[in-house]
Amino acid sequence: MESEIRNSATGLTKRLAQTAQETFGDFEEAVEKDATKTAVLDGTVHPLTSYVINYVKFLFDYQATLKQLFSEFGNGDDSNSQLASVTMRIMQAFQNNLEGKSKQYKDQALTHLFLMNNIHYMVRSVRRSEAKDLLGDDWVQRHRRVVQQHANLYKRTAWTKVRPIYITQTSSAQGLTSSGGGSVEGGNSSGVSRGLLKEGFKMCNMQFDELHQRQSQWTVPDTELRESLRLVVAEVLLPAYRSFLKRFGPLVESGKNSQRYIKYTAEDLERLLGELFEGKSMNEPRR
């Protein structure tokens, strides 16, 4: 009788373990195939992200029970590695789905911002939970590098096309003033140079205004990540603008209506960069 009860209990435990494995497999598949059309227009953390992370946290709330079930399942792996394997598969399914959702964006810069935000949320959540001990530092560091890669791709996609305007306009103006033999104060070539510089400033203003308006509506919810990304943008933009303004600003300022062309000081740009990624509405005024 006692052995029958023991065998019955063992059989029940194995069936529970198998059911748990099947449930995790079903969840993994559901996450990867999730076709929710909910679009986060500002590139912030997607509802699926917080849902998956909460599910993983729930697993670790019951890890002692799950480890016991896994040990009874008897496939040769220790219970820690089985729980880690389940978690990693769910995380990978989630990332595969994120990649698909990121393709909804027409703006490649917003694609990278979205992936950066969501993978950062995943990594930060793991680092603050018991999952970190099981997944390991290698997993955390590898995914932190992925976050950095998307931040770099965002920078390259969104802002490096603005910086060459300053360089191009600078080199063009230098060529005209030196080859024409004239000075800013007089001569035909100086008139052409001033006109070119005015167009250069107008183009810079237009590009910056467009990007600022668009990206002020985007969101980076993590404060530290948001400040870091603003700094990255400033490092790309401000040195080139300061150089352009210092070298050629006086030429435009000496003409008429200079305020139409020199719209911003370097300090103005720096202040406006501090408004990026706050999820503002289009009608919300600048600070």
Overview of this structure, please?
It contains eleven helices and no strands. It is mostly helical and 287 residues long. Helix 8 (163-180) runs parallel beside helix 10. The model is unreliable at 176-192 (pLDDT under 50).
Order of helices and strands: HHHHHHHHHHH
Query: In whole angstroms, how far apart are the ends?
Result: 79 Å
Mean pLDDT: 82
Described by the principal axes of the CA atoms, the overall outline is rod-shaped
Q: Which stretches are poorly predicted, pLDDT < 50 over at least 5 residues?
A: 176-192
Number of strand segments: 0
Structural class: mainly alpha
Briefly summarize what is shown.
With 287 residues, this protein is an all-alpha fold. It has helices at 2-33, 47-61, 63-73, 79-102, 108-127, 131-135, 137-158, 163-180, 188-215, 223-253, 266-273.
Protein traits:
287 residues, rod-shaped, mainly alpha
Describe how the helices and strands are arranged.
Layout: H1 2-33, H2 47-61, H3 63-73, H4 79-102, H5 108-127, H6 131-135, H7 137-158, H8 163-180, H9 188-215, H10 223-253, H11 266-273
